[in-house]
Specification:
alpha+beta, 3-stranded antiparallel sheet, 3-stranded mixed sheet, 8 strands, about 60% helix
Length: about 220
């Protein structure tokens, strides 16, 4: 039994059964306990979430270097494959070029041999004519001389047809690119200065290229001669 006074001056004492008070306390106590447990659960959940949030970036940070390393290794492998492919391609190109160069040399030799064979075929009649002339060398000298002239003209015609041409004529300007001065002769005519006065040995071009310089005598003007 609990006594409750309405005020200090109250004379009456209200008596409340203890069982009634205990029941009210018991009714309020579970609610408080439940609230504490819920608060504790919330705090634990918050702490777990915080720890999880802290652990997640750490895991991601640990995974990033591994991913970068994998990507780097894959990049190196791709680059090595590319270099290997380029090296193999270069070797193939070099082999093809060597084969092409060898074929070109062989073709050039064949072309040169064909050209030489054609020239020899054209010269054979001249050789035959010389043989016939030599057979009759003991005969008439004038006939031999006439035969020699005919053979010479035939030979010149053959070589001219192949691209051979003389390059020196009397009266031409002296040109060191095609002439070789074997002598210098004083002249009193200024128009003959540095002119070809005589050709001692003919020079020739073959298909536009100088194959032999002409040996010539060059005039040099000297006033008062």
């Amino acid at each position: 039994m609990v006594r409750l006074e309405d005020s200090p001056r109250a004379k009456e004492v209200i008596e409340v059964p203890i069982d009634f008070v205990d029941e009210e306390v018991r009714e309020e106590r579970p609610s408080v306990t439940s609230d504490l447990e819920e608060e504790r659960t919330n705090e634990q959940s918050t702490e777990q979430e915080s720890v999880g949030a802290q652990e997640q970036p750490a895991e991601e940070a640990a995974q990033e270097p591994a991913a970068e390393q994998v990507a780097e290794e894959e990049g190196k492998e791709a680059e090595e494959e590319r270099v290997k492919e380029l090296e193999e391609r270069l070797l193939r190109l070099m082999a093809e070029f060597d084969n092409y160069r060898r074929r070109t040399r062989e073709q050039q030799k064949e072309v040169a041999a064909d050209a030489q064979s054609e020239l020899v075929k054209k010269l054979l009649p001249v050789v035959d004519d010389f043989g016939h002339m030599m057979e009759h060398a003991d005969g008439d000298a004038s006939a031999v001389a006439e035969g020699a002239k005919l053979i010479y003209r035939k030979l010149v015609d053959i070589l001219t047809g192949e691209g051979l041409e003389p390059i020196a004529n009397v009266g031409d300007d002296f040109d060191p690119e095609i002439h070789e001065a074997v002598a210098v002769q004083p002249v009193d005519d200024p128009e003959k200065d540095h002119k070809v006065l005589a050709v001692t040995k003919q020079g020739y071009r073959f298909k536009g290229r100088v194959v032999r310089h002409a040996q010539v005598v060059v005039g040099q003007y000297q006033e008062g001669n």
